[in-house]
Amino acid sequence: VVCFFPFVSPEEERKVKANDREYNEKFQYASNCIVTSKYNIVTFLPVNLFEQFQEVANTYFLFLLILQLIPQISSLSWFTTIVPLALVLSITAVKDATDDYFRHKSDNQVNNRESQVLIRGSLQNEKWMNVRVGDIIKLENNQFVAADVLLLSTSEPHGLCYIETAELDGETNMKVRQSISVTAELCDPNHLASFDGEVMCEPPNNKLDRFCGTLYWREKKYPLTNQNMLLRGCVLRNTEACYGLVIFAGPDTKLMQNSGRTKFKRTSIDRLMNTLVLWIFGFLVCMGGILAVGNAIWEKEVGFLFQSFLPWDPPVDNFLFSAFLSFWSYVIILNTVVPISLYVSVEVIRLGHSYFINWDQQMFCSQCNTAAEARTTTLNEELGQVEYIFSDKTGTLTQNIMTFNKCSINGQSYGMLNFTPLNPLADPNFCFYDEKLLESVKVGDSHTHEFFRLLSLCHTVMSEEKSEGELVYKAQSPDEGALVTAARNFGFVFRSRTPGTITTTEMGQTVTYSLLAILDFNNIRKRMSVIVRNPEGRIRLYCKGADTVLVERLQPCNQELISITSDHLNEYAADGLRTLALAYRDLSEEEWEAWSESHRFADKATDCREDRLAATYDKIEQEMLLLGATAIEDKLQEGVPETIALLSLANIKIWVLTGDKQETAVNIGYSCKMLTDDMTEVIIISGHTVQSVRHELRSVFFFFLVQILPNLIISGEFALVISGHSLAHALEPDMEEEFLSTACACKAVICCRVTPLQKAQVVELIKKHKKAVTLAVGDGANDVSMIKSAHIGVGISGQEGIQAVLASDYSFAQFRFLQRLLLVHGRWSYLRMCRFLCYFFYKNFAFTMVHFWFGFFCGFSAQTVYDQFFITLYNIVYTSLPVLAMGMFDQDVPDQRSLEYPKLYEPGQLNLLFNKREFFICITQGIYTSVVLFFVPYAVLSDATQSNGVPLADYQSFAVTTATALVIVVSVQIALDTGFWTVFNHVFVWGSLGSFFTIMFALHSQTLFRNLPNQFHFVGNAQNTLLQPVVWLTIALATAICIVPVLAFRFLKLDLKPQLSDTVRKLKFSFYDPSVSALLSSQCVPL
Amino acid sequence: MGKEKSKSGPLARRPDNSAFKQQRLPAWSPMLTASAVLPFFYLLALICMLLGVWLLLTVQNTQEMKVDYTEAGSCNLCFEMRKNVSNAGQRCTCMIMFSIEKAFKGDVFIYYGLRNFHQNLRRYMDSRDDGQMLGRKSNLKSPSSYCKPFDVDEKGVPIAPCGAVANSMFNDSFILTYYTINGPTVVPLLRKGLTWYTDKNVKYRNPKMDNLTLPEVFEGTTRPPYWQKPVYQLDPFDPNNNGFINDDLLVWMREAAFPNFKKLYGFLYRANKPFTKGLPAGNYSVTISYNFPVQYFKGRKEVVLTTVSWFGGQNHFLPIAYLVTSGLILLTAVVLTVVWWKFGKDGKNMAD
Fold it and tell me: What is d(CA A267, CA A183) in angstroms, rounded to the nearest whole number?
């Protein structure tokens, strides 16, 4: 598929005229053809190469390649660089090409979907990609919506239709969309063909829940909202057919606008690696400089005289120029200290670790059939270094399965007793037990009835009645579902709704209310209301919402009831329940008329519409009468307290950031063992002003000081609870450090009543001031900002859609899997990556520095020690797989041990396994090895002869001896470093050694030499050299000298300063028992 | 590996329970325990010690004699003569006397040694054409550009063998004389079999003869500028030892790794008395046809006589290195043992 995108300046306003392609084409809107693929066959090579050469490493190697093509300085054949470079580039290119192939396939499939388009008065089948802005299309049940369309009319009454938005935001409940009333009558193609309305609306954007526009038709203006839009990616449900006007097409649709790549995260190891690579470049230049100076001196003293045997190259006329060339030659030779394969190997290892996470059965939740998923493959080792976890509460620590638990009606509290359902429509799974409440329903207590009537009317739940009595509710939030279900079980059954009516069955009688208005819920209002007219004609407003906002809006007449209910609310909150207050208000016909007029006015406003609506809502939600309160329980997930306890033992600090009220949050804190009764003090900060917050923080600080003074350590444990409004002040630049020092001295921190933005701010604060790795875990859309700003974002795939999962780097179904992700996978990944890097730098220094020492003997002429093929293959064949196997499979302790001894996690947090110090140790070891590998063969061979008298001091024998010794020494070293010998390690280590000898014999064979004598001039060398006992004695001696000190140091370290992991390893561990593991990999909580 | 199975049911997406995917592959996890490391160290020390002693004893049985003739004795004159390039064509012969205190038993090898001659310079080593020396006719007529400036002479005639390596070939020759009571006897030397089998038979070949004589094959080429004879006349006595397979040429073409090196010149022919058991003790002289100039690069020239053992010529470094290493390993082992015994926390202090 080839799509053409006109290049136009960003539009400020979109104008679309129905059924008028010529008019719409003037604006050059994007067509409905989408291209998510990056390349086509022609552009693939240039574009992909261009992208790859934007990587600094690749460009560096390209630069080297160009240097090697200059004959005067080419100390190595061009293929020593081009082979690895081509390998790396082609691996990446193949990966990119496969990815792109699948994108092409899916693009093709999507673009070729059929859709019915109204063209010249008749419906025609068209491919999606040919649909234009301004077309009217027909959608049928269960079809995907082809573009962002304005709903014109549907087959259902009132212009209603239902959609499922799973592909868009992951929510699986159905949502209602309604066409504006004037177009709802345009039901057949003939009428629609003559529809010539013009839509003016906002330019394309990525806000899924917002749309603002106006329809101009027959000289009239009609406001359009998101309620009138069907977005691309939705599926039409429960609706026979509907017609829509295409507003945004292809790349302009909200779905496509949302599919941008998220910010690329880098790990601290990545950053360290980049610094080290820069240092190595510096080192390389220094080495090159030293050798160039050496060359200058040598050429002046000796080379000048040696010219009769070897004249200088034509451009060289003095020793300084020769030194200059020699510098570049040495840069080429010594470039292998930063091997190109480093970056590829790191990526391969990380990818492998990600697969291990995906494959882990113990992170599979069989109840929800979800396996853990590493959505980002580049962060794994950072999982082993986490110090701060920021967790959402609802849905993350808790199950987000709400049960109606308690209620307070007219000052009377009910809850937690036995209950038998009294009506046949009851939900059999419902369990709320209170005989008294049942009694009061039966008796017909008016307050109780009104209470449940409110619950059955004031909500946005959709119902689906497949057969009589088999009601299924689809609720956007589980809270609402729980409340409506509760009302249903007490005899107030919500049956169905239309845009204008709600039908319920009240104590067996079917009642239909006409729905006058829905004053919907949002995070600022924290309440929702409905205005209904009952069959008798009385108009009533029902409101439910957070107690704090509702109490302000009550009639002040019944203070006693208000205070009793408040007591109940506090009681419920203290039990960790989620509370809502319920109230109602009777409206007279006049009041309703007046308000309805102002509402219509606000509704039609094109600017600040939402603010105006909110103000209107506010006007009517006053003077209400309190009905009571509900309390909903959100159960803790399985294993949460244990996980939190384990993670705190691993020295990870857990902060809970929740939107719940303080009491609820504190209570959850207690129930998941974050807060305990042993704690010296739970500090609560809830000031509303800058001064009071500052004062509170100061006093806490002094309190700490008093505690510290006796012995300079904080004795006792503290916890900090801070509320959202205090947090807003505490996060001010002048107070944040004070807040931070206080918070970090506490064992547990709970922030309640926080907004999504504040969650992100808290994470940013820690990132800014502590050099610590942060992890944010959450499940809802409100956690997305926090997940994105933390070093690692974890999404819990639970009840609340998949937005958090989509933004996350890792996702799984249960909070408790976090312990396995961090303590097992993270720890292993970190350990493996560190060991991998240490060894990698070691082996390359050992390999490369030999050239440096040889420089002093070969007149600094940039002669290599090894055969050029050995240089080419050393990093990509002879030594790559054993270290990859170690990086992939190594385990210092088995997974159960790292869960049993959470302290094993600490080295990662303290960054002990790979840091600048470790790096220097590695390269020192590498340089030491290179000294041994050069000088031992030098000392032995320079005077040695074969047993038949032929000297062994020729260059080729020396090269073979050194190369063999090098491969053997680094193989022994990897054998020492490998702590976990699986079959792969054996195969790779022995296989690499075998491949070295095989390839060497092949390269030194007669066949190759006869064909390319100038390339394979080492012919016969392998057998002549390696048959000499003195060569093997040399190799053995060099190996012993290289390895013995390492072994001695390791033994001493293990003996005198054993790490915890060493000690744990020494414990006799029972071998893996399948039955125990089956138990461990147990399923989620049985309900 | 990661293909989604088309199972249904609640466990449809459950990952496979394979040892590989669950990272439970059977594995061996070795530990550096005292019981493994300390015996290993002692054993290693013992092995090194035994090897060192054995090598030392072997080396004691070999003998070596070096005679530096750069400016020694009458060679002084030749040395001065070679300083002047215009005398390059003139012959110069000199003689050095030396005596052998203890007879050289067994095979005796004669080497020429050069000091401070860099055969390992990058451009020097590249300055050769292995294709030409493999006998490829095309390379014979147009040598590789790597040979520059020794690829063609001023007239554009290709040089065979081309390049700086061949051009700088060592061209002194020696005659060894043994002074018995009966008068001087020339020590018979074998000048063949000085190279690896692969060099003589694979790496270096003369161009295809096709019923031509060697000089005819090399027609249209010229000798390297520093040579006195063309390549097909290197050995006047043995026609089969000429051209690109001349032993002396092959020996020279195998470049030395370090600036001080020795190369095989020949070995003692032991068929006749008094040399059947080697070189007897006594007085010797070596007569040198002094051609190779070394004063340009401050080099030295020497003649080396050695006998060999199973691991080659006299080489004191290897046994001593083994003995020293053995000592150090033993010392380390003792220190480690003491440390382990006194301070070790070998699992004993699990409590902390």
Answer: 54
For an interface test with B, the pick among A307, A829, A948, A1001 (most B C-beta atoms closer than 10 Å) comes out as A948
Q: Which of A842, A889, A890, A829 is nearest to A269 (CA)?
A: A829
The response to whether A660 counts as a known ligand-binding position is yes
Question: Are A577 and A628 part of one and the same domain?
Answer: yes
Closest among B180, B136, B187, B142 to B162, alpha carbons compared: B142
Of A579, A610, A635, which residue constitutes the final position of a domain? A635
Number of domains in chain A: 3
Same domain for A224 and A150, yes or no, is: yes
Closest CA relative to residue A569, chosen from A724, A406, A706 = A406
Residue A91 pLDDT more than 50? Answer: yes
- Average pLDDT value for chain A: 84
Residue tagged 């590789």 (tokens): B144
Answer yes or no: do A626 and A747 share one domain: no
A564 within domain boundaries: yes
Pair (A658, A671) in one structural domain: yes
Tokens of A12: 């400020």
As a whole number of angstroms, the distance between CA A887 and CA A769 comes to 32
Q: What is the CATH number of the domain that holds A750?
A: 3.40.50.1000
Catalytic residues of A: 392
User: Which of these three, A635, A668, A688, is where a domain ends?
Assistant: A635
ipTM: 0.94
Does residue A584 sit in the same domain as residue A631?
Answer: yes
The DSSP annotation for A1012-1053 comes to: -TTT-TTTTHHHHHHT-HHHHHHHHHHHHHHHHHHHHHHHHH
Residue A794 to chain B, least CA–CA distance (Å) = 20
Average pLDDT, stretch A775-802?
83
Residues A708 and A622 in one domain: no
Residue A959: count of CB within 10 angstroms of its CB? 21
pLDDT tens readout for residues A489-533: 888 888 888 778 899 988 888 899 998 888 877 767 778 899 999
Residue B30: is the preceding peptide bond cis (ω within 30°)? no
pLDDT tens column, B328-343: 999 999 999 999 888 8
Please tell me which of the candidates A358, A1020, A1023 has its beta carbon nearest to residue B199: A1020
Within a domain: residue A586?
A: yes
Chain A CA closest to residue B125: A863
* CATH number (domain holding residue A148): 2.70.150
pTM of the model: 0.82
What pLDDT was estimated at residue A1075? 38
Strand partners, A412: A409
List C-alpha distances in Å: B43 to A965, B34, B48. Answer: 21, 14, 9
CATH number for the domain that contains residue A507: 3.40.1110.10
**Range from A75-79, A374-378, A1013-1017 carrying the lowest mean pLDDT:** A75-79
Nearest to A255 by CA among A209, A208, A203: A208
Question: What pLDDT score was predicted for residue A1087?
Answer: 30
Cα–Cα distance between A34 and A250 in angstroms, integer? 5
Query: What is residue A58's predicted lDDT score, i.e. its pLDDT?
Result: 80
Distance, in Å, from the CA atom of A1029 to the CA atom of A741, rounded to the nearest integer, reads: 68
Report if residue A651 sits inside a domain: yes
How large is the average pLDDT for residues B275-291? 91
* One domain, residues A373 and A473: no
Chain B residues in contact with A895 by the CB 8 A cut-off are 23
Residue B349: pLDDT band with limits 50, 70, 90: very low
Residue A482 lies inside a defined structural domain of this protein: yes
Q: Which of B351, B26, B36, B346 is nearest to A1065 (CA)?
A: B346
Domain span including residue A153: 113-239
Interface test with A, best of B317, B322, B335 (most A CBs within 10 A): B317
C-alpha–C-alpha distance, residues A905 and A898, integer Å: 8
Higher pLDDT, A486 or A356: A356
Residues A136 and A209 in one domain: yes
